[in-house]
Amino acid sequence: MSMVENTSVSFAQSQSQTQAQSGSRAKPPAVPGIRPITPVVGAEVTGVDLAEVTDEAFAQIQRAWLAHSALLFRDQSLSDADLVAFSRRFGTLDQAPVNENGRMTAAAFPEIYVVSNIKGADGKPIGSLGAGEAVWHTDMSYLPVPPDASLLYSKEVPPEGGDTWIVSMEAALAALPADLSAAIVGRSIKHDGTYNSGGYLREGLRASDNPMDSVGTPHPIVCAHPETGRPTLYLGRRRNAYVIGLPVVESEALLDRLWAVIDQPGLSFAHRWRVGDVLMWDNRSTMHRRDPFDPESRRLMHRTQIGGKVAPQPGA
Ligand SMILES: O=C(O)CCC(=O)C(=O)O
Ligand SMILES: [Fe+2]
Hints:
The chain has helices at about 1-20, 55-70, 80-90, 170-175, 180-185, 250-260; strands at about 35, 45, 70-75, 105, 110-115, 130, 135, 150-155, 165-170, 190, 215-220, 220-225, 230-235, 240-245, 270, 280, 285-290, 300-305, 315. It is an alpha+beta fold. The strands form four sheets. Strands 1, 2, 3, 4, 5, 6, 8, 16 and 18 form a nine-stranded mixed sheet that branches. A four-stranded antiparallel sheet has the order 7-17-9-15. A three-stranded antiparallel sheet has the order 11-10-14.
């Protein structure tokens, strides 16, 4: 696959050189380059302006998306309308969720969720999640049909900290020791809806640290990706998670062993942000987390979320 992609990079380069030399009017259709970030997850897509993606380029982005589960596009300069238009090519967008500060969206774009620690003139945060750590999670897996994907576009970044990490849950599944793989066959986890990844209580919910009685939705622990069919580990988030049918102590012990696998080397990468980056992750086959950063520095992200098309299905 990477050989084919490398060929297309040089094809795109030689094509644009030819066009520049001949001074022809029409821009050639940009053929994106695809550069894997790690062998198991993530690819950087180069040579594409997300404000004007041809159908041909989009077809290639889509192939890379399914192959690599997370894509990075650098040096973008997008309006909110551009971000929404590109995101929509992957499916219907969700409205921004309500978070600890209410529903924080970009002006005139209810589908753009603002992730930021910046405070407005009134002293109130203009976005969600503050400057603290966001622990490993999959977005909104407490819903019966969780979102398919998220796109995060950086508008202001701190000088250090605030890296976003992506882990491959397909590689995590493959890395499980045999006894652990056997222990999760046919099992489901209840995904807790009480707290968000920043540890904030979701609006309207009762605080609970009892995995048996907190609100949430059960999903299979091993799911089949609905578009690729590849099996993936589906953990959601750790807090208040509960393996259905087990006594809590056994559920906790099993979850602790599963979660320990996530931090094995080679399954994840950290993305160090520059302004103008778009990082998109497949919410079905990856988890993400964010490092904390200095609350005195500014970080501003606009995020879109592709709505879920089907509920998570059991995998092999
Ligand atoms: O701020 C970040 O890097 C990620 C925040 C997050 O978890 C999200 O946008 O879903
Ligand atoms: Fe998230």
